[in-house]
Automatic annotation (TrEMBL):
Gene3D superfamilies: 3.10.450.280, DD-peptidase/beta-lactamase superfamily, ORF12 helical bundle domain-like. Residues 45-137 form the ORF 12 gene product N-terminal domain. Residues 1-30 form the signal peptide. It comes from Agreia pratensis. Keywords: Signal. This is Beta-lactamase.
Length: 463
């Protein structure tokens, strides 16, 4: 049972999975298909200690009243609160409310816990929950329900499954030498459209982390330096920092961790502002990107929302793909500051086909992961390794793969993921998956798409 695992897993379970749930709900709202299925029927939760806590979670994410820190502390075990402050959980629960009302549609009881299928009009999530002897929640995991798919038992079957996906998809599995540098090419075990450049969504945050690490190494930045949240730096979810009041101080280390672990957009923009856009653009070449011009100028997340989906930049959106760098910089420079309102953006459309996203091919992502591991091996870059492994994105066998670095990304019509896996025998692999479609609905089933990554890891485990 996941509740019995380490505190670090409990931490990423409640933080990363809850934040991901909100992002999935928003994406599903924006891209729901034309045909609506019959609404499912709610089921009762058991009248047991863990059932009552599951009911509390359901009540909390459905409530019109803001959850207080005191309520969190009354229901969640101290071992979790040591890792995740109650204030942070309050912010995440508030985001969950964007997809309410939620109902429980099925319940499966197991020793020490429950698995509950939660349904709203915009998303379905599987909740796994357990409690300790004091009847406090000590395990909480939200994830997409298992996809209706047959796992691949061979590389041939894996390729067939990827080819059958509704979105245009590339997937690579690369064995990398233990001493490979950022430009080092490894053995491609799987190569499905591996030469295609495709949108990344939030995987671009790897380059921001690289720029931060190099600034620390240069002595122009410290992991302990503070950043200040303001209305002009506040972005939209995913994340939790956008819910913090102006004037809130966030350390560089905390912002970098949130940027990778829960893909916090406000944390990302704070870091870009601190190191400078040009430093991140330079990092593309430093970390082995084959064509940095594809991402120049380098967008902040606020700018992606405004340019790609906002009502005031339709002309700039239409001309962006053909615009020169100076023209693009002028557009970004004209964007207003202030609070962004989510309901003012049309997330039912896609923007990546107009060049509005961040772009790379699988070799770029392999190089980026290797470059970051090199930075992590330096005294000043030591935090990078832990930051990258805070959230593995999927469930892997930790005895087979004791270390996993992950960054994924999504936007309307875009779903992508990248993993560096270190096997217990010392072998290293990088798995990349990039899906894109003009129909956002084609990429909303993350379990169907990323199930192929889980299959690949199992095949690597069985080598």
């Amino acid at each position: 049972m996941r509740a019995q695992r380490s505190g670090s897993l409990r931490r990423r379970s409640i933080v990363a999975a809850l934040a991901t749930a909100v992002a999935l709900a928003v994406s599903a709202c924006a891209s729901s298909g034309p045909e609506a299925s019959a609404a499912p029927t709610a089921v009762a939760l058991p009248d047991t200690a863990v059932g009552k806590k599951a009911q509390w979670v359901l009540y909390t994410i459905n409530s019109d009243e803001e959850t207080t820190e005191a309520e969190i502390e009354q229901n969640i075990a101290p071992v979790m609160l040591e890792q995740v402050p109650a204030s942070q959980i309050v912010a995440i629960v508030g985001q969950m409310g964007d997809a309410k009302p939620w109902i429980a549609t099925s319940v499966t009881e197991a020793t020490g816990g429950l698995t509950v299928l939660l349904h709203s009009s915009s998303a379905e999530l599987q909740m796994q929950i357990s409690v300790d002897e004091q009847q406090l929640i000590n395990g909480l995991l939200f994830q997409q329900p298992p996809a209706d798919r047959t796992p691949a038992a061979s590389w041939k079957e894996l390729k067939k499954n990827v080819a059958a996906l509704p979105a245009d998809t590339s997937m690579t599995v690369t064995r990398v030498d233990a001493e490979a540098d950022a430009a080092g090419a490894g053995e491609r075990i799987v190569d499905i459209a591996g030469d295609e450049t495709k949108p990344l969504g939030s995987i671009f945050k790897l380059y921001v982390l690289g720029a931060v690490a190099d600034a620390v190494a240069a002595g122009t930045l410290s992991w302990d330096d503070n950043l200040i949240i303001s209305d002009d730096t506040r972005s939209l979810p995913s994340g939790v920092l956008q819910d913090q009041p102006s004037g809130t101080l966030v350390s560089v280390r905390e912002a970098a961790t949130k940027m990778i672990e829960i893909s916090d957009n406000t944390a990302t923009d704070l870091l870009i502002d601190r190191v400078g856009r040009e430093a991140v653009e330079a990092q593309l070449a430093v970390m082995g990107h084959h064509d940095p011009a594809l991402n120049t100028p380098f967008l902040k997340t606020r700018e992606l929302f405004q340019l790609g989906f906002g009502p005031d930049f339709g002309d700039a959106r239409a001309s962006w793909a053909d615009a020169g760098v100076d023209q693009r910089r002028a557009v970004l420079g004209s964007m207003p500051g202030g609070v962004l309102e989510l309901n003012s953006f049309d997330l039912s459309t896609t923007a990546w086909q107009q060049g509005i996203d961040w772009f790379a091919d699988p070799a770029d992502l392999v190089a980026a992961h290797l470059a970051l591991q090199q930075k992590a091996a330096t005294p000043t870059g030591e935090p990078v390794r832990g930051i990258l492994s805070a959230n593995p994105g999927l469930q892997f066998d930790s005895e087979v793969f004791p270390y996993i670095a992950f960054k994924g990304g999504s936007a309307p019509g875009v779903l992508a993921g990248s993993w560096l896996l270190e096997r217990a025998d010392g072998e290293r692999f990088v798995i990349t998956m990039q899906s894109s479609s003009l129909d956002p609905a084609d990429v909303t089933d993350t379990a169907l798409i990323f199930g192929n990554v889980t299959d690949a890891a199992k095949l690597l485990a069985d080598e």
